Amino acid sequence: MASARRNPNFLRGPKINPKPITGRETVAELVDNAFLAYNAGRLREACHLFTDRMLKSNVTVGMSLTGAMTPAGLGMSTIIPLLESGFVDWMISTGANLYHDAHFALGLSLHQGTPFADDVELRNDGVVRIYDIFFDYKVLLSTDAFIREVSARPEFQRSMSSAEYHYLLGGYIRQREKALKLGKRSLLGVAHDLGVPIYTSSPGDSSIGMNVAEQALAGSKLRFDVSADVNETAAIVLEAKRAGGKSGALIAGGGSPKNFLLQTEPQIQEVLGIDERGHDFFLQLTDARPDTGGLSGATPGEAVSWGKIDPDMLPGTVVCYLDNTVSLPILTAYAKAKVGKRRLRRLYHKRDQMMARLVREYQAALTFRNDRAQKAKKAKS
User: Burial, 244: exposed, middle or buried (Cβ in 10 Å; 0-12, 13-18, 19+)?
Assistant: First the structure.
């Protein structure tokens, strides 16, 4: 029998030879030494992609956020440090995460509980449960009242992007934090201070949107401009590329925010007709599966077929199948240990400038398409 052919290329990876854990390791040392295979290996690859490539000074990083992360405290423990370190330049979040984020800034308390409680008993006692998180029903009522009070102010009585709304709301949340001497507990408040724009892909799909809708019945002029959201997010990505840099997508979870982050490139290429290639880096932390449709049809390979990811940049993609309450804190700790800080871009305050570039390139592309169509029409006649 002929001997099997040897291909040394498959055996060029580092040998699996970890040091014994001593208990004195930093998070970064633990990841590099012990996270060697399976989803631990993917998390190590995610940490390396994030710190070695996505956090370069010329990369604009957008983050999408789904799942009930802020009620679990990840807003304070993880996302605020990411923003303050300059590791996330803009965000798309579910409205629910931003609504529950506000509880902490208003001095309202959420508590560790158990997933095995009797929900009928909890309801009778006025306690709301998010898996193993408990809080008083009055927390919702108090937060609703704050959102309605703020949203009724004169500066809100117009049509605006969700980023504008969150910036204004974040300013009032930050004021309340300071008045209560609570420190920085709200990612909306921190994003306001840092000029990080935060969008919501489905503005009506949360208690924030529900309260705004209630006020519309009473005559409020506040409206969310979803077209502004689509175009502003596309402008952020186009600006990152045209300024000589790259665009990175940090995806925590999936769903609508994930697609809203990734659709910026099809909006630029397919809809606006502007010449572009796709996001340069794709890092997703998820527990969903592609074979059931849970990844929204956008694994890195599929995303290339849509124009969402630059096909030449597929090596700059990682999907880590892991609970985000585990992966996000580890990724954040690793990045802070390895990178420290990046320059803040304060993109919220540059929206007009970025939109002007998008409009110029769209008008040029539209003129080119119209000219080409006219030439084709003449050639047929």
Answer: exposed
Q: pTM for this one? A: 0.93
Active site residue 308: yes
Domain locations in the chain as residue ranges: 36-374
Are the beta carbons of 265 and 280 closer than 8 angstroms? no
Q: Which of 256, 258, 242 is nearest to 63 (CA)?
A: 258
Q: Is residue 227 classed exposed, middle or buried when 0-12, 13-18 and 19+ CB atoms within 10 A define those classes?
A: exposed
Joined together, the tokens standing for residue 175 give 């004021």
DSSP H/E element including 332 = helix 324-338
Q: Which of 241, 246, 258, 308 is catalytic?
A: 308
Specify the CATH architecture of the domain 36-374: 3-Layer(aba) Sandwich (3.40)
Structure-token pair, residue 379: 């050639």
Burial classification of residue 332, based on how many CB atoms lie within 10 Å of its CB (0-12 exposed, 13-18 middle, 19 or more buried): buried
pLDDT at 322: 92
Q: Which two tokens stand for residue 246?
A: 């790259």
Instruction: Tell me the average confidence (pLDDT) per consecutive run of 10 residues in the chain, 381 residues long.
Output: 64 92 97 96 97 97 96 97 98 98 98 97 97 98 98 98 98 97 96 98 95 97 98 98 96 93 95 94 89 70 76 80 95 97 98 98 95 84 73
